[in-house]
Amino acid sequence: MTTYLITGATGTLGHLATQALRALEPTAHIAVLARPGADVDRLRESGAAVRRGDYDDPPSLRAACAGIERALLVSSPVLDPTVRARQHLAFLDAAAAAGVAHLTYTSALGAEHDPGHHRTEQALAQGSTSHTILRNGLYTEPFVERAWQEALTTGVVRSATQGHALRTASVRDLGLAAAHTLAAPLPGATLELNGPGWTYDDLTDAITTRLGRPVRHESVDDAELGPFGPVHALFRAGLLAQSPAELTRLIGQAPRTAGEVLAVVAG
Fold first, then answer.
1. Which CATH number does the domain housing residue 157 bear?
2. Average pLDDT, the chain
3. End-to-end CA distance of the chain
């Protein structure tokens, strides 16, 4: 029986990966890493064994990796690339010391331009641990959730994409993808995982249909969208437009569309 460790399991991606792995490997021993003090009730209810540890506490990571055969390193939520890289490398060192046989790392599309992800990918390439790198696209859910809330409160969905398509991936599909690479490792593979394209006009039409009343799409400047503004600029420039082909092959089904994500968000 294979013994797994999933980090970041109290977050969305790690939790979904844990659920997906349990469905793929019902009898496997699945351990999850959670920071001291984090709420782990739903993880224990799922049958996962909780190991306490923190990316900033290397001894705790070494203890958490003891006896683990395959691990999922969900990238740190810390945005400072120096801190993020240090945390990731601490986990890689712990995994290597514990003799983890295979490790999957959740990187990001455009990792070569992100010092934290790039340094981690370099360390994996230079190390001895078998590994798979998943360069995940941006999650579809935050974009759809924002548009849904805007439609409910103002009747207007705003974007700065100027009609350009977005390519994003549902976090549920990315969690499933991570689980697949744990259950059936792909040593040495670097996969670029993205979902199908969509536009704000399409999303607004879908929201209008669901609400049964008119909703308008309005183009605005980046500055009016807060943290979403710079991301819209990337899509406007044609970046992050990788095909959904690798995600489709990995999960064995078509990735969720923005409309399918909307159905979940809207309930």
1. 3.90.25.10
2. 96
3. 38
